[in-house]
């Protein structure tokens, strides 16, 4: 048994010695460096106070859970692996981006994910949220809904027959270079005029 082991070891050494001169003739080969993957802790709502949740995401815990329930099926991964980004993490990263007006890198860091991953799922999450607008953003179009809205405003302010409160605001932005003049406002800054109607 030992003789067989020694013979194999000698053959291996002989093969290695034969291969070394060939490698030296070919020149130094580039060695690939394998980068270790870094897994950051993923963001969840557990352990956050309600005040911190509202400050970070501009929504309370209940609203985020309801939004998550509504879009979860659209964003559910087809294959679940240990590296799969949970739907909650995707939603929280996008909500932080929308609430802060920051960059994708910041949203990714807060979510505990990489910026390329964030960039990949951002359109999907936004499309899922936008898909909910007809269900949740609509003018009262039935007599019953109009009556409820009127009663709600009357309870708040004492004004009868109010269906909505309207206001306008300027949202600052960096304009496209080709049409920069279209976004200049009366204060000589760049913005877009947003008009919004809210219910009670």
From TrEMBL:
Bias (Low complexity): 15-29
Region (Disordered): 13-42
InterPro entries: HARBI1-like (IPR045249)
Highest taxon, organism lineage: Eukaryota
Name under which the protein is recorded: Nuclease HARBI1
Organism whose genome encodes this protein: Pleurodeles waltl
